[in-house]
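Intended use. Records like the one below are meant for learning the mapping from a protein sequence to its folded structure. Do not use them to infer anything beyond what is encoded.
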Amino acid sequence: MNDNPSPQKGLGDSEHLKALGYENSFHRSMGLWANFALGFTYLSPLVGVYSLFALALSTGGPPSIFWLIIVGSGQLLVALVFGEVVSQYPIAGGIYPWTRRLWGKRYAWMAAWVYVWAMIVTITAVAEFGTGFLANLINAPVTNEVTLGLSVLFLVVAFGLNFSGTKTLGRVARIGLAAELVGVVGLGLYLLIFQRKQEFSAFFDSMGVQGNGSYAAAFLGAALAGLFLFYGFEACGDVAEEVENPARGIPRAMILTILVGGVSALFSFGGYVLAAPDLQAIVNGKDIDPIPAILDASLGSVGAKIFLVVALTAFLSCVLSLQAAASRLLFSFARDGMLPGHTWLSRVSTRTAVPVNALIVACTIPLLLCLLIYVGGTTLLVRITAFAVIGIYVAFQAVVLAALRQRIKGWRPAGPFNLGRFGLVINVIALAYGIFAMVLLARPGTTGVFLDDWIVLIGLFVVMGSGLLYLLIAKPHSASHQPEGDAIAVAAMLRAHPDNARSTSVTH
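Structure written out for the chain above:
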């Protein structure tokens, strides 16, 4: 594979997009590797593992590492379904246009509404979590004022890079990819080979985390170790109209994101476990932020500072990728007239060919949320981000369910990436996995504090409820006349197109 794949045989990119009812609005300056880097830095195993390591170990012990394999496998099935959809519909915005064309505009409104808020909250959370690294690097005190200022810095710098165009986005994403691979795979291997203080058998030892109860309950509670990590691959499809040969390249990029991200996370998580000087203290919950001590003991103070630079690059790339994905979703939503101020939101810069106004919104709302967190404290950060992951899973499964519905009605995906006879089976298993994941995410806590225990479902109810109310009262879909629910008809049209030479299986 190379970063500039050869042109697609058969339907060209512009012809494919025109056949779907749209004209080119962007520059196709993103190749396969830049597209993969965008998804990978959004998924960001470095950010995910660092954020969840202590929680996973204190909840499920070292065997919680197996959730990375379980969730990675499930999300790979989801990515395969997404690959077939984006291969037929390589349209900017991802979740929104896919659900619209697979089901309908009201269904798409709800899926996109939930997804865009989940992404905006995630942008805020990643910027906030990244401030600890930056404060540590510059020896700044971690006060509320410093956290706010550094969060704003993350958001504004990412906005400036995004504003300068897709080429810059691709370059920075590739730099972020390199930083992730060094900080996750490279460091993980170093810890495994040269700094191992625990036996490999530790991964099969609960270390008493279950207390007097069942370990099965403790293991299920540690599912967040994987569920919070394996999303971001869909961002590859959010920028479909900026990618060369997207119908072939984006499915590959999404699959690479899951596979490379999964292997990277395993090396990182495993390396930290085996290099921990006092693993029992982490499992017992006595060390709530163990990674800095592990790094300092393994790398020394200079090495730990170098890692901080690598980690900061990863955090910035993650915010950059999230902003890009959110802005393209907002643009796609607005282009079809589905949002207030849709004309303004769907405007694309003639100079940089980015949806500048949608990008402003994707930066401004997180800035406002950072101000709210400054006023409300870190507890508010936990509460407003609690729904983000389940919101993303709900949006993902909206696509999987819509794809299955179309298959039952007779849809045979017509893009060059095609699962063939395995498509239905993979689609069913992907939906079953998604329901299982959402049940795990929605399980109430056991603290005895109502708001804390039920915050995930409360957040989802508020977002979905407000979206449904707006849909029923304002009827934003009523003025939108772009096609909907046309998967079977479009597949037949693409097959009949004289210039279309499609692959017949995923292996081609």
